[in-house]
Design brief:
Layout lengths: L2 H6 L2 E2 H8 L3 H10 L6 E2 L5 E3 L1 H15 L5 H43 L1
Length: 114
């Protein structure tokens, strides 16, 4: 995959702002506040966002408008959610080797019985 292929899947700040219904300044403020990070930057330095970041911005807006959380509270919520996602991934990665080990041990036991 080339750099231009990757950039083709990324969108500029204006596109994200329009899709979510916020201003570009608001999106920059979310970045300054530590709620989001651009996925990449164009050769010219423009912020580029992938679908994960767009979904995160949409989630932030929902937490604000529907749930009434302020940005400090949202930062805490997102931090907990990010940690939970990391724990889930670590658990999933850790269970595969355990399953393989159990399967191998079961084969050994079956062979010993024979």
């Amino acid at each position: 995959m080339t750099t231009s292929d990757i950039e083709a899947k990324l969108v500029r700040i204006g596109v994200v702002a329009e899709r979510i219904g916020i201003s570009e300044r608001t999106l920059r403020y979310y970045e300054e506040f530590g709620l989001v990070t651009p996925s990449a930057y164009s050769r010219g330095g423009a912020r580029l966002y992938d679908e994960n970041v767009i979904n995160r911005v949409s989630h932030i807006r929902s937490l604000q408008s529907l749930m009434g959380f302020n940005l400090d509270e949202i930062k805490d919520i997102l931090s907990v959610e990010d940690n939970l996602d990391q724990l889930r991934n670590e658990y999933r990665m850790g269970t595969k080797p355990k399953k393989e080990l159990i399967t191998t041990e079961m084969r050994i036991l079956v062979n010993l019985k024979s």
